[in-house]
Amino acid sequence: MARESFLAFLVAVRDSPAMLARYDHRNLQQLLFHAGNEGYDFDADDIADVVGALEANVIRHKDGDPFDGTSRLWRHMFGRRHLAYVVDAVVGRHTEAELTGVPR
Question: Is pTM, for the whole model, over 0.85?
Answer without folding.
Answer: yes
